Structure formats: structure tokens, C-alpha cells
Prior knowledge:
- The protein has a single domain, classed as TIM Barrel.
- It contains eleven helices and eight strands.
- The chain has helices spanning about 5-15, 30-35, 50, 65-75, 95-105, 120-130, 145-150, 160-175, 185-195, 215-220, 240-255, and strands at about 20-25, 40-45, 80-85, 110-115, 135-140, 180, 200-205, 210-215.
- Strands 1-2-3-4-5-6-7-8 form an eight-stranded parallel beta barrel, surrounded by eight helices.
- Helix 2 links the parallel strand 1 (about 20-25) and strand 2 (about 40-45).
- It is globular and about 50 Å long.
- It starts with 6 loop residues before the first helix and ends in a 12-residue tail after the last helix.
- The protein binds 3-methyl-2-oxobutanoic acid (KIV).
Amino acid sequence: MSGPTTLYTLQDMKRRGEKFVCITAYDALFAGLCSSAGAEVLLVGDSLGMVLQGHDSTLPVTMEDMVYHMQCVKRGNKGALLMADLPFMSYASETQTLDNAARLMRAGGQIVKLEGGAWIAETTRQLTERGIPVCAHMGLTPQSVNRIGGFRVQGRDPGAANTIIEEAKLLEEYGANMLLLECIPAALARTISESVSIPVIGIGAGRDVDGQIMVMHDVLGISPITPRFVKNFLPESSAGIPGAIAAYVAAVKEQRFPGPEHSYH
Ligand code: KIV
């Protein structure tokens, strides 16, 4: 990697059609491994509630957890852009959102991610106007698992698909710097990616987005639950864990991952 990754780097990669790689990291050692392997973005995700803490959802994760893990990741990072999740109910009101986003930025974050559609548009405007970049997480939003009724593919019917497209455009208009699309049909993700000028990251959203993200434990094949979009890269590695991370980075950049078998149609 030449110099640290910034939002400008990702924007430029989108313009050139070059795919970028994101992966979750929760500690210094893995942050070092993943960023040295060429991942452009490290996400300190609230998935830590499930993969590190053993909860069955991300809801119990606190701001204290997020700040602690962001500080660890910051120490090990070698030039990747650091994204931090605002956890469940940490962006329910204006002052709370600004305070919590500031805490994550002070801990080392360079962009915050929050889940939602039109309802986070105003929040997005307030954060970005104050210098805090925003990634809007759309499609399957795990913090709303109880309302959705499970971890299900979103946007399958035309009405729901159209809502996601319109909300994506609205969020760009309100200043979002990136979108993350989780578990939506590949054709819908492609339409969204082509409809906005900001970089779009996908997970279970097919190949035709600008970047891919995976939870690190899924890349290493050690998560107990393996949805369709997950691939274990350890069998492709002749160099243990660092080799598996490098294999994931290469597969995304060479557009070999995700394949149709990892996507929803
Ligand atoms: O928290 C997380 O790890 C995430 C990814 C699943 C994208 O939001």
C-alpha cells in the first residue's frame, strides 16, 4: 500500500473500477496483519458482540467496548482507514450521537458507521458538517434484528428494493461518504452502486459493488454460523492465518470473490 488510505483513495478506486478490501479487526495484532496484507479499510464492528463476547446479537455492545477495541486496533494499524461502528442506541438523539461519534474519533476512528435509511439522513448531515465522515449501513441492519424478525435477506420485492435505492440516494445527498450494503440481491446492489458517486461496500451483496467486507472470523472459517456469503480462506493458505487474509485480499482485488454461489439472486 502506498501511504495511508483515505476517503479520497477509495473514491479514486471507485472511479477507476478498482475493488477495495475491508475486514473487521478488534485487536492490535490482527489490525497489523490485515492492514499489512493490503486491506484498505479495517472495521471495528459491533459484530464483536457476537464473535468476541459470545452474544447472539450485536445489541449488548456498549460504547466502552467500541472505544476499547478501537484503541487496540489503532495501535496495530499500518495505514488502513479505520471505521468504527456506533453501537445499538448510541445514536438515538442528536447530542448523544455527536458525543459518541466524537469518542470513537478520539479513540482512533476515521469514519463512523451507523445503521439505517432515511431516518439517519439528518444525523448524517450533522456528523459530516462537523467533520465526522459517515458510512451508512443499509439492507440487513443487525441492530434491528428484532424488528426484522431474524437475519434475513432484504430488498427482495420491488417495493422494498426501490425504498433502499431511494434512501441510498438521499443519504448521499445528506453527505454520507460511503454506503455498506448487507444481504441484498446482487442486482439491487449493482443498481445502488451505479446510482451513487460515493464508494459502496458489500457483504452478501454480490460482486458489483466497489469494495467487499467480511468478518475476520469468517475469513478464517472459525465462526459457528456460516451464511451463504461467507468463505473460509484458510484452506487456500500455505502460510496459516496471514496467508488466509492475503488470499481474501487477492480474491477480492482479482474479482474472484464473491462468486455467484456467495450472492443472492
Ligand atoms: O459489525 C460488523 O462487523 C459489520 C459487518 C458485518 C459489516 O457491520
